[in-house]
Amino acid sequence: MACIWYGVQAWIGGQCVTLMLRAIWSDYQDLPNTFPSQSTNTRDYVSFFLFWFGSLPAIWFPVHKIRHLFTVKAYFAPAAGITFFIWAIVRAHGLGPIVRQGSKAQGSVLAWGMVRGIMSSIANFATLIVNDPDFSRFARKPKDALWSQLITIPVGFAVTSFIGIIVSSSSAVIYGGTPVWNPLLLLGRFLEGANSGERFGVFIIAASFTLAQLGTNIAANSISAGTDMTALLPRYLNIRRGGYICAIVGLAMCPWNLLSSSNNFTTYLSAYSVFLSSIAGVMICDYYIVRKGYFQIRDLYSARKSSPYYYTFGFSWRGYTAYICGILINIVGFVGAIGKPVPAGATYVYNLNFFGGFIVASGVYYLLCRFFPIPATSDTWMEVGDEIRNPSVAYGADEYLDRASSEGTDNKYDVKADEESGVREREVDKI
After folding, report:
1. By CB neighbour count within 10 A (0-12 exposed, 13-18 middle, 19+ buried), where does 2 fall?
2. What does the alpha-carbon distance between residue 139 and residue 133 come to, in Å, rounded to a whole number?
3. Stretch 189-216: mean pLDDT, rounded?
4. 3-state secondary structure at position 385
5. Is the dihedral of CA 207, 211, 213, 214 positive or negative?
6. For the CA atoms of the chain, what is the radius of gyration?
7. DSSP label of 423
8. pLDDT at 429
9. Termini Cα distance of the chain
10. Cβ atoms 223, 3 nearer than 8 A
């Protein structure tokens, strides 16, 4: 799913590149089209490829080596969004005309529309919910990752959604007719008859959005996909190789088909959450309810059959069963979302797709673990949290640590002296 989302984000980044080039060369808008597809054209594909190709060097470096890219993004992207927001309001002659627009939906239609909007918003950061450990594992203690996310994720998405809604609504006031659902399309319309100052403003805003898409693609997609692929085939893949595979899949999956209309995009987001909600349900139930925060740290990195996390031939059939059940509750409604006739009840269930998949998957997993208990659990809350010190996951490390403690050693040790125990050379803090 991260690979698919990589392609979607890259396509949006390509639209930003189009705006930048149009702001410099107005004739770029009329680039001859040689594409047979009705969902895209030569101009948009060239911009998409430029963004995709330009993103490849960023995948090469570890995140901590390009951290300043995210620092720059943190300043420029919000500033560009707020500037675009103010510009749209000014062109609509104030916030009043936008807010006073009447609602065309009433009653249950309005209520279910709000529900679908909430589900789409959750689906938009569902990947962050599931892949959060890819980044929170670098925190020194759990609280370091808690408060920053607890504040920034809800506030950030709420503010971004609000800006998008107001900007889209302003388009109906400025140009009349149906609101422009894609803010980038509205920014493109600002170029029509624009003077040099307005063209420069569009270029700066589009450049900031391009930087934002680049950072999002790296942090939320390529690293997540690379980490998961590394876990699957650690002998052949690392995070860098997995990131490049993610980029190739993102290019090959033709993302313009998903973004050809607002309906296609929201359908895709809903389908996205169908799969990720089940994963989140199993993960959260396993940690907070079944295990109550208890993990045997060293065994998490063990491939031995005696490990409590080896399960059955290396697979957790309980987890997979719960995951599939969480998908099945929404599958009929998903068929209806792509245009097939389905019962009304299935549609209502699908409108709550993330919550439905999450609750069913977590519930099934809990019941399976009650009837078929798993090892390494606790009856009381036993999260290690801030108490863990100098964790070692190497086989045979206990013998070395005991010996180092008795001898008062705080230096490097020779790997040859510990070949039998399989402990690799490393630095050990003073005990």
Report:
1. buried
2. 10
3. 93
4. helix
5. positive
6. 25
7. P
8. 38
9. 44
10. no
- Alpha-carbon gap, residue 104 to 208, rounded angstroms: 34
Residue 321: per-residue pLDDT: 97
Using DSSP, state whether 61 is helix, strand or coil: coil
- Cβ partners under 8 Å of residue 391, min gap 6: 297, 298
Is residue 77 within 8 Å of 208, Cβ to Cβ? yes
> What average pLDDT does range 199-224 have in this prediction?
91
**Per-residue pLDDT at 420:** 40
Contact 399, 419 (CB under 8 A): no
Chain Cα centroid distance, residue 228: 13
> Is 214 in contact with 111 (CB distance < 8 Å)?
no
As a whole number, mean pLDDT of residues 79-90 equals 93
Tell me how crowded residue 328 is: count the other CB atoms within 10 A of its CB.
14
Phi, psi of 182 (to 5 degrees): -95, 115
Predicted pLDDT at 128: 75
Residue 189, Cβ neighbours under 10 Å: how many? 13
What CA–CA distance (Å, rounded) separates 16 from 186?
Answer: 12
Say what the pTM is. Answer: 0.76
- Rounded to an integer, what distance in angstroms lies between the CA atom of residue 352 and that of residue 345? 11
Distance CA 219, CA 153 (A): 14
The contacts found for 304-309 with CB under 8 angstroms, 24 or more apart, are 308/374, 308/375, 308/376, 309/376
Estimate to the nearest angstrom the gap between the alpha carbon of 347 and the chain centroid. Answer: 26
* Rounded CA separation 210/19 (Å): 10
Name residue, tokens 């491939």.
Answer: 303
User: Cα–Cα distance between 47 and 18 in angstroms, integer?
Assistant: 6
Give the integer Cα–Cα distance in Å for 294 and 296.
Answer: 7
- For 393, other C-beta atoms within 10 Å of its C-beta total 11
Rounded Cα–Cα distance for residues 302 and 295 (Å): 13
Whether 19 contacts 182, CB under 8 Å: no
Of the pLDDT bands very low, low, confident and very high (cuts 50, 70, 90), residue 413 is very low
